[in-house]
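FAQ

Q: What does a record look like?
A: Structure on top, sequence underneath. For example:
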């Protein structure tokens, strides 16, 4: 079953601003077309590292490290078997599968290469681990994603809802609000309502 959800939904930010384009005019916020312009993206450059979201425009975020890996044939076949069993009518171009993203336990995202560098058609599979056993079938969703790597920072935008995320490797996390914002600016991400992981950590502590 395909429903509306997103992989980075483990921790709610309450009244955070939401997607970039939901709260301001297009003249002051980044669009997917602007974000992907002149992108040079190498999938090999982001694997074998643990990434953390350091800045985001979204109602939810992920606090755990995020892992990207080249998709092995055995893992792809296992993922494909689940999709074929739940939604056999889908026409998935499995030959385009390049990467697997794992935001947290129970969530896997297969990234299918699209037409331009950094553009991916993603299939999100979320296990319903909080449900009463026997566990129901996983939730599935397509997502239209854009990735950009500038220097040591990785940007990601979801083109359906214009949520956006800036990531850094776990051993290279910026330590100030200014550095987090600078990373977002370097990736070309602009708009009101953005929050850093530093601000988010303080907010969680105070709740």
């Amino acid at each position: 079953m395909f429903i509306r959800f997103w992989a980075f939904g483990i921790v709610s930010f309450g009244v955070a601003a939401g997607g970039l384009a939901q709260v301001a005019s297009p003249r002051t916020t980044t669009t997917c077309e602007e974000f992907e312009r002149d992108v040079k993206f190498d999938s090999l450059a982001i694997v074998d590292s643990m990434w953390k979201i350091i800045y985001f425009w979204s109602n939810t975020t992920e606090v755990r490290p995020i892992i990207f890996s080249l998709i092995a044939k055995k893992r792809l076949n296992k993922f494909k078997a689940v999709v074929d069993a739940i939604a056999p009518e889908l026409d998935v171009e499995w030959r385009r599968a390049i990467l697997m993203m794992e935001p947290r336990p129970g969530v896997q995202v297969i990234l299918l290469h699209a037409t331009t560098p950094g553009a991916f058609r993603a299939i999100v599979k979320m296990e319903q681990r909080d449900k009463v056993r026997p566990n129901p079938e996983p939730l599935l969703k397509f997502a239209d994603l854009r990735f950009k790597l500038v220097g040591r920072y990785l940007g990601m935008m979801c083109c359906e809802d214009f949520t956006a995320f800036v990531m850094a490797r776990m051993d290279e996390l910026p330590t100030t609000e200014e550095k987090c914002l600078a990373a977002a600016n370097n990736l070309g991400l602009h708009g009101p309502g953005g929050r850093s992981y530093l601000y988010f950590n303080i907010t969680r502590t105070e709740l």
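Q: Is there anything notable about this one?
A: Residues 1-5, 10-27 have pLDDT under 50 and may be disordered.
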